[in-house]
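Example 246, ligand fe (ii) ion.
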Amino acid sequence: MFELSSETRVNELEAESPAMMNALMATGIFREGDNSDLTIDALCWGFGLNPLIILNTLARARASEAPSNIDVSELDGLTLTQVVENIESSHHDYLRETLPLIGESIGRVVDAHGANDDRLIDVQTLFEKMSADLENHMLHEEEALFPMVRDMETDGAIKPTRCGETVGGPIACMENDHNVVREELGRLRELTDDYALPKNACMTYRNMLEQLDQFGQNTAIHIHKEEQVLFPGALKAQAALREDPA
Ligand SMILES: [Fe+2]
Ligand SMILES: [Fe+2]
């Protein structure tokens, strides 16, 4: 598996992740045609920069990179209201049901093994934060963006919500939240070695890792549906209404 470090070469980054490569080029320390055989370490010190700063930037870019293997063709041909219903039933309901259950599983594993493994405490702290972030995030979507989308399709106009009366405001907030969640999911994968089962793991441990893995996958699909289908669809619908008010 690819591991980002100060010894990573620029050409390895290029092969691994367009998002990390773009982030590197945006810093201005590497340009098209430069020697891509250099390591991050050599490249940074050549500019008098501490490589840790660039590595953090690259890790953030990697965490926010949209996975390319997610299939959302089940949404093809649906109205935006139906897309919202799909997201609510497949993802918001799923999270409300499973977040407390996963929290309980983590608690049991921490009670049994936390004294010997600090990373389990970090998993618990991180998951508690993610749960709270996601609860707030879903509420925000359900109180602002989702009603706006339904209004556009049923009434041809948006009723003002706590986030104003255009979809752009809530969408910008939602994208910001998604980036935070993506980074947190990346950290969760790091802390659990990609949900790998430790030797001699008990059933409770196994169960917790399976739940976390499933939670990560469901959340990646959830975010993908919103960013790739719902948000652009809502912006397009709003632009069409402005051009041709009902
Ligand atoms: Fe959502
Ligand atoms: Fe969302």
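Summary: The chain has a mean pLDDT of 90.
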